[in-house]
Design a protein that fits this description.
Elements lengths: L43 H21 L7 H17 L8 E5 L6 E4 L3 E5 H6 L3 H17 L1 H21 L4 H36 L6 H16 L18 H16 L11 H5 L4 E2 L7 E3 L2 E4 L4 E4 L5 E4 L4 E4 L5 E7 L7 H5 L7 E11 L2 E10 L2 E10 L2 E9 L4 H13 L1 E2 L2 H6 L3 E7 L7 H5 L7 H8 L13 E6 L1
Parallel strand pairs: 1-3
Antiparallel strand pairs: 2-3, 4-16, 5-6, 6-7, 7-15, 8-9, 9-10, 10-14, 11-12, 12-13, 13-14, 16-17
């Protein structure tokens, strides 16, 4: 979490939850392997328009994703790959600007004008040129097919239709049904675009002499990693139909079936070129030092020299703007920094108007580890909030806790998090190191347990080791094979 700027970028649970409490600066992005706006090549006017959009949005994307990640070995490895993909694509004349983003999130997307983005988090999940090539080729397809512009037009037409409906004398149920049908149509339209981009990407892989099954292998790893990050919790509410992306199992089946048309029966194989894997050695994994580190359920920030403990089992997302967490009990937690004038007391800041539904009688002040602390409660609709501010010198930090079940457990857990906040000593701060991908060789006896024991700073290391290396019953590890581990 970088505390240079304090914009409110919401995580999933906070989206909609805190709109009434704080101003939201939300950057619309794409999910993994989506394509955002994809454009170009329908004449000079179109190219000019698309390039202008891409240039305008590019700095915002870079800032929102932690800046550009510079790594000479990865850039060299990808440079030759991208050249092959462009030459083999449906439009070799299209120019692309590929940017590596300094984010641990597994994501890739495209903007008008040929701007394609890949996060270092996605690199860590890739195991050969065919897998990372499938991702890039997919995004290139969004660009050449101008999928984003078409989707934007669909959304604009739906908004126009909703405005017209608001002036028509029809009953509310009919109006809701029409709007729901329009929403479903947009979802189906987006799903069709994703599948079309998958097929175009696989076709490009095959033309470039790469393994067309790289797309399905990466999607399998992505599915396993998503389950790992989500604590293996899957939704059974049937919402796949409304998602802009096809459900992962369906998508995997589609990519496998299409790859067969180029390569015959599916085979569990990897590229014999280890140069890509070797280029990943030393790549940052997880949080950057400027955003602090999450180790287990504890957040550390060496530069700010602070730490605190979140409830055990919390799902934690550390972003450049804030730290978000959700507990097993359903509590949403946000930690960030705020600008509070040094002459203003924390209690005065709490009641300065930025919290709606504030219970002024709940404001309390105390000290934690010698640091001034102010807390208060608020209610907004079905949600209850506990707010806590902590001051260190001229800096002020903020915790926001939210729940729909404000029982004693909620308030006790919130107090426990605040009580755990403390400053790090210089020695403690200096000892913190970022995690990195290390590429190592499987021993001759094929025993990977010693490699798993070398994993540091991650939960369930054995499971993560298998996911990062695409190891499964159909793709077992082999003696002498290069694999990735996570260590300092």
């Amino acid at each position: 979490m970088s505390l240079v700027q304090f914009a409110f970028v919401s995580a999933r649970l906070w989206r909609g939850l805190m709109l009434s409490l704080l101003a939201v600066a939300l950057l619309s992005g794409c999910q993994t392997l989506s394509g955002g706006f994809g454009p170009v090549t329908l004449g000079d006017r179109t190219q000019s328009r698309d390039a202008r959009i891409g240039r305008q949005e590019h700095p915002k994307i870079v800032a929102a994703y932690g800046g550009i990640y510079e790594n000479a070995q990865v850039e060299r490895s990808l440079g030759a790959l991208i050249g092959r993909l462009v030459a083999a694509s449906d439009n070799p004349a299209q120019n692309y600007q590929i940017t590596l983003l300094n984010s641990p999130v597994v994501n890739a997307f495209a903007l008008p004008g040929g701007y394609v983005y890949v996060t270092r988090g996605l690199l860590a999940l890739s195991n050969d040129l065919s897998e990372i090539g499938a991702v890039i080729a997919h995004e290139m397809a969004h660009v050449t097919e101008r999928h984003g512009i078409a989707r934007e037009d669909k959304v604009r037409n739906t908004l126009l239709a909703s405005k017209i409906l608001s002036t028509v004398s029809i009953d509310s149920k009919t109006r809701e049904r029409i709007l729901k049908n329009s929403k479903n149509e947009i979802a189906r339209f987006s799903q069709a675009q994703e599948l079309a981009a998958d097929k175009a990407g696989i076709r490009t892989l095959a033309r470039a002499g790469l393994d067309p099954y790289g797309a399905s292998r990466f999607l399998m790893s992505l599915d396993r990693y998503s389950s790992f990050r989500a604590g293996s919790v899957r939704s059974d509410d049937g919402d796949d139909f409304l998602m802009t992306h096809p459900s992962t199992p369906n998508r995997i089946r589609e990519t496998i079936n299409f790859a067969r048309s180029f390569s015959g029966p599916e085979a569990a194989r990897r590229s014999d070129d280890d140069r890509f894997l070797k280029s990943l050695d030393g790549v940052l994994f997880g949080d950057d030092s400027e955003e602090g580190y999450v180790r287990g359920s504890t957040f550390f920030h060496a530069d700010l020299r602070i730490r605190f403990d979140l409830p055990a089992g919390s799902r934690i997302e550390n972003t450049p703007r804030a730290v978000f967490a959700t507990t097993e009990q359903g509590t949403a937690i946000r930690f960030d920094g705020v600008d509070v004038p040094i002459r203003q007391t924390l209690a005065d800041y709490i009641q300065s108007g930025w919290i709606k539904g504030l219970d002024r009688s709940s404001i309390r002040t105390r000290k934690v580890e010698g640091l001034p602390v102010a807390t208060a409660d608020a209610r907004r609709g079905k949600w209850a909030f506990r707010i806590a501010l902590i001051r260190i010198g001229t800096a002020t930090y903020r915790f926001l806790f939210a729940t729909k079940t404000p029982d004693a457990g909620f308030f006790n857990a919130a107090d426990s998090v605040v009580q755990s906040f403390r400053r790090l000593s210089l020695e403690e701060a200096a000892s913190l190191k970022p995690l990195r991908i290390r590429v190592v060789e499987v021993p001759r006896n094929g025993n990977v347990r010693p490699l798993v024991r070398r994993m540091r700073g991650v939960a369930q290391p054995a499971r993560l080791f298998r996911i990062l290396n695409g190891i499964s019953a159909s793709n077992p590890v082999k003696p002498g094979q290069l694999v990735k581990i996570v260590s300092e």
